[in-house]
Amino acid sequence: MSWVLHGANLGRIWGEIRHMDWRWVAAAVGCDILVYVLQSLRWQLMLRPIEKVPFLYALQAIYVGLFTNEVLPLRAGEIIRCFLLSKSTEIPLSVTFASALIERIFDGIWLMGCFFAALHMGHMPRVLLNGGYVLGVLIVVVGLILAYAMYAKQQSLNLVFGISWPRWFNTLIEDLHLIGHSRYLYYAFIASGVYMFAQVLPIFMLIKANRLGVPFAASFTMMVLLRLSSVVPQAPGNLGSFQWVAARTLMMFGLASAHAKRFSLILWGVMTIPLILIGFVALALEGVSMTHLHRQATAAAKERNTTD
Fold first, then answer.
1. pTM of the predicted model as reported, rounded to 2 decimal places
2. Which label site among 75, 170, 173, 256 has the fewest CB atoms less than 10 Å from its CB?
3. Is residue 105 pLDDT above 70, yes or no?
4. Is the pLDDT of residue 204 over 70?
5. Structural domain harbouring 144
6. How far apart are CA 307 and CA 166, in angstroms?
7. What is the count of structural domains for the chain?
8. Sorting pLDDT into bands at 50, 70 and 90, what band is 178?
């Protein structure tokens, strides 16, 4: 964060905010909200073989999870959203965890496709370039394991690995097997692509609102690098890394350093504050505090592993 603030000439940021085209800002906020509506629809598709999840249940769980990720470190919101959906429906906690894991694999596959496309659009910072290749290898390995778990029978797993699995793992494999044999899995994969590309729109629209004069490739590359950087657990709201990635991307496309740094702060505010507000409302509707919910979710996950 100190790199972003150094030389950013923050005294000019309020003038830039006042002169933004607020029609584009409103469109950016709307598209940012739409992104997570798409994520909710995808989650519904993923879980359709198990239970027809009400859309509002999935949406509320996702926004509470987003709110948690913005205020707590280590992406604790992923655990909480799975717990909330399990609590609101008849779906076992292991199934919601399994579906979230598949979502991440789908995201990773689409992200790697976007990453290799972005390689041809600009010179990426080496740390993110290396991170992309490492992520690609991990996605292939985990994806192959998950695919085998989905389509293989439990007996073949025991035969291949030659060990006796704990009951909680057997339950997880059964859940993955059920999801993997549904056509909705393929619909969810297509929805993941739409979800990934939709994340370019808020960035593009805010660039238009600020009249930065950089090509669309800058928006696309920034989305890829922001998603890539968010894979590693970090500070609440990705504060610091978000600004570094956004500013470095714009500098790759010729924007002056100080201007790029100021825009990274504006972009973070526009893309984060609405999610915090909606997430806060979703949490208030749940009727519990975030700390209490976090403790409940963690305890439920531990109890599941212990009892199974």
1. 0.84
2. 256
3. yes
4. yes
5. 2-307
6. 10
7. 1
8. confident
